[in-house]
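Lecture notes, structural biology module. Today: joint structure prediction for complexes of two components.
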Amino acid sequence: MASSKLLSQPRWFRFLPRNLSNARLFSELASQPPVSEPQNNIESKSNNNFSSKASSTPSSLKEPELAKFSAIADTWWDYEGPFKPLHKMNPTRLAFIRSTLCRHFGKDPLSPRPFEGLRVIDVGCGGGILSEPLARMGATVTGIDAVEKNIKIARLHANLDPTTSTIEYCCTTAEKLVDEQRKFDAVISLEVIEHVANPAEFCKSLSSLIDHGGATVVSTINRSMRAYATAIVAAEYLLQWLPKGTHQWSSFLTPEELTMILKRASIDVKEMAGFVFNPISGRWSLSDDISVNFIAFGTKENESETV
Amino acid sequence: MNRIVARKFGPNVCRLRIPWRPFSTDVAAKSSTSNAGNPEQETEGEQYDVAIVGGGMVGLALACSLASRPLTKHLNIAIIDSNPALGRKHLIKKDDLPDPRVSTVTPATISFFRDIGAWQYVDKQRHAYFDKMQVWDYTGLGFTKYNARDANKEVLGCVVENKVLLSSLLSRVQDIDVQNKIYPSRLNSMSILPNSSSLEVDSTSSATSLFTHGRLAKLELEDGNSLYAKLVVGADGGKSRVRELAGFRTTGWNYSQNAIICTVEHAIENHCAWQRFLPAGPIALLPIGDKFSNIVWTMNPKESSEFKSMSEDDFLKAVNHALDYGYGPHPKSSVMGNAGIFSWLKGNITVSAKDCFEVPPKVVKLASERMAFPLSLRHANDYTSKRVVLIGDAAHTVHPLAGQGVNLGFGDASTLSNVISEGIAVGTDIGEVSLLKKYEADRKPANVMMMAVLDGFQKAYSVDFGPLNILRAAAFHGAQYISPLKTSIISYASGEQRLPLFS
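The predicted structure, tokenised, for the full assembly:
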């Protein structure tokens, strides 16, 4: 059993953590206060890279960003912890991914495991809170993150459930996988691009990971005044849901900018939606309002396909 | 996929002898090393997606509902109930006398039953639709008649014996090819450990180790069997063992009232639901099909023992008295209402406002034994915690005033299966509290509201005090003559609307 799982993992990150100080990552949430919080996305995930000109140097990551996420990595699976807004937003993001990918790949939306047979990579997977649901939906998932602690936590957590223990987690960057010529049917990178040093290069890497006929889903925060007010002022300073400095407003992209840099990376954005938070119900939902958080689905323009 | 299956079942075979120590947090470490243990603990229980404790109407409705949704029909379900009737299939014959235990199901419940494919079985058995309802009180100051036409509906509800509802759901469960297993026993203990990551990465696929990591709940039954489930549903009624084991507190009180229920026969067919508020509590006469009606009569415990033991003739006399001139005059509101204080509000008067007060058909025969049971109100402060969720009476026991209890339970079952389906759509672990809280957030306000309304009614009528009587009468007049209010009340009572007033 165990061996079959290990076989599927590249050997370089098979570190079985022997003495993780944080063996208990999750608290029991029996008593949750019904607090509703505003949104913001936090997310984060760390990392990722970009490789500037000097390809294959891991130093191209934003070091302070990595340190930031490393510090709170233990709390990834605490539903009431710093990543609570992400957990709350997760079903909404997955609903968008489910519907766009089912349509694109012609999968049955009424199947409990519609992604059966699809190779999906979660770039900037953090503690695995997106990777695990994708695996339950049937996908063959690879989760990568530049923060090694995140990967350890993600792997420990995924191993608790047979349906998620098949996830391949690697502490690496999109660029390195491009160098290894890995290809995926769907490349997903949520709430990551605002944390990378060079979004244009990052998008090119994402594009290179997409196999023929594949698709990508990217989400981020808009560089709008409303986003500034909700994601930074409210979430980080007033409500302190997020550690201060989680987001830098100047590194946010507008939907137009994202569409443009994806286009330059040969990705055609086909669909875009916004997330809105209803503070009364405490739930997120998809909407046309892309002024704060938005998610985009795109397909790779592929000349060779038409030949 | 194949690999996952192999993983799930393979280790069960080879890892049978791992005893489990309750509530020790470092079980993971211990369990993989110690092999000793009681012999009866050596067999590892089967693993399910959902374990429903309580195979009553609400529990079976949840099983049917899960089995009929595309995203949840693959779920492996265990039903735990010691009721021997669950093992066999039996339709109730139409010529049996009606059982006094009946439910008034609302149009919302009927459409839920249709969705899950169970109404076709009810259709073949005895049930009685009614499209009119008359409510009045003993002071003679007011009455209200509801008619399905007022809310543009065909029926206000349907009275069905509980055993008919149960056997219909059971037939449905048996007829669809679902992965169900019924355990004919009672729940003894339930344990859920906190999530923990273990360093023993390779021990994760057996049920025992999933349990020690907090990924499965373990249930032990009185007959020595044990099983594991991702989600435990407490559908085990007002004295829920699941609720007790999960440590959910409840809020509630006992009314110092009992209800007497029985089946009676008329000389003519009855197609209307009747309810009259008497000084000690309401008496309801519900059509149950043919010339039979069901009586639910609320009174204080001392009276109830008298009424239960008196001769049949005396009892029938008392019933007819209570439904006619007993305790006070007939309302004469058609005169008062037309010219009264509400005339400026009338606008378009609903059709039945023109209907006059009627006297219910006389009861001529007792057709079942009389049963008495105490009334209480109880509400669980929480409906869910990790891997545990309560539905139906386990979450809320209400005053049976409007026959709403089981409808609230069916609403719970419908919502819970919907929430589970939504969770599966986005790849969520179905035992995760964050998912289950959605169910609680949806149902709690609806249930609390209905309980408050029913409790308020009960309280308003348990006091005989002049000014209050007039207020009540005014409320009746209001309900009778203000169309939007009346339509709202009907929609609310039909289970289709969440708030009782002007929404």
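Point to remember: The domain at 46-494 of chain B is CATH 3.50.50.60 (FAD/NAD(P)-binding domain).
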